[in-house]
Design goal:
The protein is α/β, with parallel strands linked by helices. It has eleven helices and 15 strands. Bound molecules: NADP nicotinamide-adenine-dinucleotide phosphate (NAP) and ligand G4F.
Length: 351
């Protein structure tokens, strides 16, 4: 009998999906992923998994065309793959853009989750289900936020994630499904999308150093976020799925920093002290409602999942900045090079 576990990942082309695919392949899983059809291929973060190495083809992933808005396709895929574990990471995940596209965001984030849960229920396959819930669901609820903190979403994305969270809980309690919510606080990496603030900053600084760009254009610098390192966060997802009982967990570092602090530290690491001259504030990037302060209490995950973050703020910035510098063909000033133990100088292939 085939003992290999099969996992199905929606959002496999994204930051977390690609790291989760790496992680599960290393654990010996057969990994299936949902990809959207587009006129140009969008597989940069998976290139290292689909390339072959001379005579030794590397263990690959199996990709399936589909979309979270297409319920019938989801049903057929669940039936065909017969997965042991489903990780629902697919989303219109940009909070600012969700104010411009609230209907589409809700279709994908809330209804997409419901369609996937229904697809699983109707096939009757006893798969485990992970929902990518978010600290954005807390909105401006008092910090630190834990599993007990009431949600108070401040964006269409947050509202839709609360609905998806509740659908997941309802399928667990109503249909006895092994369904968990990972309430993850912000997590970043060299594979982070270029229009999220951390990556926008590190990539822009690398381009300024390389002489390709004059300014970074940003919005609100005062918001505070609890920023962790994405590869560590996908391990927490997997750990939730290995528990005896399904439950919901906050995953966070417990530290919070403002966007301004991120910016200052990144410029400092790049050896630029008069950084204000490279900054422009544009109201285009201000949101109709802002989440001011996120900081997570991950005590439950520490106790029950034995999960703890290792990479903290300074090291995270260093990992991302050195990767973007490598990508732009430059190196960071010497004084910042001993800042990080985990920073290995870039992930060119996986940008
Ligand atoms: P990401 O990089 O933006 O990736 C999103 C993924 O969803 C991409 O693979 C995207 O495919 C896919 N997708 C978008 N619309 C889809 C649709 N209609 N049907 C199927 N797939 C679709 O996001 P991420 O940072 O990896 O985050 C992963 C998940 O965790 C998301 O659900 C996000 O909301 C949630 N989350 C993220 C964080 C964080 O800090 N990163 C924190 C909490 C929760 P394309 O490549 O084709 O666009
Ligand atoms: O990097 P951001 O876009 O992340 P945000 O809004 O916190 O959302 C991310 O984390 C959530 C978890 O809480 C995820 F669920 C979600 O999918 C996503 O991954 O913005 C962070 C902060 C905000 O306060 C924003 O107003 O940075 C501020 N900001 C300032 N200038 C900017 C910019 N954000 C972006 N994206 N671009 C700017 O130019």
């Amino acid at each position: 009998m085939d003992k290999k576990k099969r996992a199905f990942i929606t959002g496999i082309t994204g930051q977390d999906g690609s790291y989760l695919a790496d992680f599960l392949l290393d654990k010996g899983y057969e990994v299936h992923g949902l990809v959207r059809r587009s006129s140009t291929l969008n597989r940069e973060r998976l290139e290292h998994l689909t390339q072959t190495d001379g005579e030794n083809p590397r263990q690959g992933i199996i990709l399936h065309y589909g979309d979270l808005t297409d319920a019938s396709m989801l049903g057929r895929l669940i039936e065909k793959i017969n997965p042991h574990e489903v990780y629902n990471l697919g989303a219109q995940s940009h909070v600012g853009i969700s104010f411009e596209m609230p209907v589409y965001t809700t279709e994908v984030v809330a209804m997409g989750t419901l369609k996937l849960l229904e697809a699983i229920r109707s096939t009757g396959i006893p798969t485990r289900f992970y929902q990518a819930s978010s600290s954005e669901m807390f909105g401006n609820a008092p910090a630190p936020q834990s599993e007990e903190t009431p949600f108070d979403p401040a964006s269409p994305y947050g509202v839709a994630k609360v609905a998806a969270y509740n659908f997941t809980k309802n399928y667990r309690e109503g249909h006895g499904m092994f369904a968990v919510n990972g309430i993850l606080f912000n997590h970043e990496s060299p594979r982070r999308g270029e229009n999220f603030v951390t990556r926008k900053i590190t990539l822009s600084i690398a381009q300024i150093l390389a002489g390709k760009k004059q300014k970074i254009v940003l919005g609100n610098l005062d918001a505070c976020r609890d920023w962790g390192y994405a590869p560590e966060y996908v391990e927490a997802m997997w750990r939730m799925m290995q528990q005896d009982q399904p439950d919901d967990y906050v995953i966070a570092t417990g530290e919070t920093h403002s966007v301004r602090e991120f910016l200052e530290n990144a410029f400092h690491m790049a050896g630029i002290s008069d950084w204000q001259q490279f900054l422009e504030i544009d109201s285009r990037y201000h949101r109709p409602r802002e989440v001011h302060l996120l900081v997570g209490d991950a005590a439950k995950a520490k106790k029950e999942l034995r999960w703890e973050p290792k990479v903290k703020f300074q090291e995270l910035i260093h990992i991302m900045l050195s990767s973007d510098c490598t990508r732009e063909g430059i190196s960071l000033p010497l004084h910042s090079q001993n800042l990080s133990v985990a920073a290995t100088g870039g992930e060119k292939i996986n940008q």
